[in-house]
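Students often ask why we bother encoding 3D structure as a string. The short answer is that it lets us treat folding as translation between two languages. Here is a chain of 446 residues written in the first language.
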Amino acid sequence: MKLKKLMVLTAAASMALSVTACGSSNNNGNNGGNNTTATNAPTESTAPAGNAGTDNAGTETVQITPEDGASLVVWESKEERAFTDAIAKEFTEKYNVPVKIEELSPVEQVTKLSQDGPSGLAADVILIPHDNLGRAASAQLLLPNDVFEQETIKNNTEASITGSSYDGMLYGYPRAAETYALYYNKSLVTEAPKSFDDVLAFGKTFTDKANNRYGIMWEVGNMYFSYPFIASNGGYIFGDNGTNKDDIGINTDGAIAGLSEFVKLKEILPINSGDINPDIKRSLFNAGDVAMDINGPWELAGYKTALGDNLGLAPLPTIGGKTAITLAGFKIFAVNAYTQYPNAAKLYAEFASSKEAQLKLNELVGSIPTNLEALEDPQIKDDVYVSAFAEQAKNSQPMPSIPEMGNVWSPVNAALPEIWDKGADPKTAMDKAAQQIKDLNDGASQ
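And here it is in the second language, the structure alphabet:
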């Protein structure tokens, strides 16, 4: 069965169940600095049990002790640095283990780990999107989440556990659920548009390229943000709930129909895809020169500070009369298989993904928790912004986590600018991208 509706229903039955709990109603661094000399991946930690306690369910909670002289390097995204600095300080105070933070985009971390892990130069704990997990786990770059497995499963949403697992084994420590929605400036847009036809109509009255003013802006050349134009009318990445690498759906009739709506929006965003990046977009939106922005929860804290009560957030408008389907993902911690300090690294990953840590992450960055108790906390349940993300999450598709997902980004991220910047025929561009993905998949499987 193709991804399409079934995948949406799967997301609604898992991720949406987790995230909708936070709505307002009742439904509601780059080179490793580790300096270790390990050249071979260690065996799984024996994780000696220490002071065993009991959790809320009355089950025994295993405690482990950091290795003598342990110190950690953690890779973290620039956008979430405020959280990481705070949580690392708390971890050091509790366990007396120094933590060095190095900024590295989560999407780059598995590649960097594969290069630097065997030489002992990679971080001990990494933060990755769940769709990168299959590539890392199949290459034996990660240690399983064994010591805290039962706690992690019990404490987090089913969807996030699925996203943190590969081939039946739990590797990740989930810390945030992510999809994206429509931010808008209420002083410019009095009511969230219901359709992209409404967005287009507004943009024709607001966009003024000469004065760098645009009705809407998003990273048009990035498949992650432009995926609704592929999926909403029936396109998909891989079939069989994202597991069938041989069923590629980015160039189906439905995908091409959605991309025809994508092309129309160039009229109100008449700039090349390469001229849009997070910093530029953030600056323009905060200044009132962009009225609407398609973005994720990581921007929430900053946008609230900049716009205050003028900040609005809503699910994405319909596309061609169809509900907009976004990509859903999870940010997960994972432990480098080559770490010199596996106990300390596992302790950090668990500590930094706990209920308290996820609430801190929400407070400082605006993220959506995966921890079940955090989702029921008033800090989350009463937040109208998180509720908007929750509503969009009902209509989202989890990114495939098979290793072949890594073959998708570059071809599609090359096709979208061809369509947007150069006016290439969407069918031609996406057929080319689909063939490139197929060739990469076939090569990867040989």
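Translate back mentally: The mean pLDDT is 87. Keep this in mind for the problem set.
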